[in-house]
Amino acid sequence: MSDMEITFPGGKKVNAQWHGFEIATDQPASGGGEGSAPAPYDLFLASVGTCAGIFVLGFIQSRGLSTEGLKITQSMDWDPDSHLMKKISLKIVLPKDFPEKYKGAVIKAAEQCTVKRTIHAPPVFEITAG
User: Which of 19, 61, 97, 100 would you call most buried, defined as having the most Cβ atoms within 10 angstroms of its Cβ?
Assistant: First the structure.
């Protein structure tokens, strides 16, 4: 098990220290923060897209294909009653002249994202105080 340290530098800011990085979060002004950093949920959403992205990028680079123009557009559908997300859609915009034979495989690569797989098999949460 590895430990991430969460600190509270002031206001609505909550930061995480992880593997030598400080990951800053803040709430938007409308939520009482300064809007100086992404909100924690924004980082969660970004982790989904960037995780899929690293798998897509690795697939394309491992075949020596061009990544020019490569991007992923991530869309979220919200449930207005629960205020939770009900669907995340990722659209991979492939480089011009991307080989048709690899389209299915690049989608499978994105599906290997560890964040997505963790959401599908969620960990047990244990919260204590002391």
Answer: 61
With 0.85 as the threshold, say if the pTM is over it: yes
Amino acid present at 76? M
Give the pair of three-digit tokens for residue 1: 């098990």
CA dist., res. 18 & res. 5, Å (int): 7
Q: Which two tokens stand for residue 47?
A: 């982790």
Tell me the CATH architecture of domain 39-120: 2-Layer Sandwich (3.30)
Q: Burial of 26 by CB count in 10 Å (0-12 exposed, 13-18 middle, 19+ buried)? A: buried
Task: State pLDDT tens for residues 13-58.
Answer: 999 999 999 999 999 999 999 999 999 999 999 999 999 999 999 9
Q: Give the Cβ contact number of residue 27 at 10 Å.
A: 19
Residue 61 corresponds to which tokens in the numbers above? 């680079």
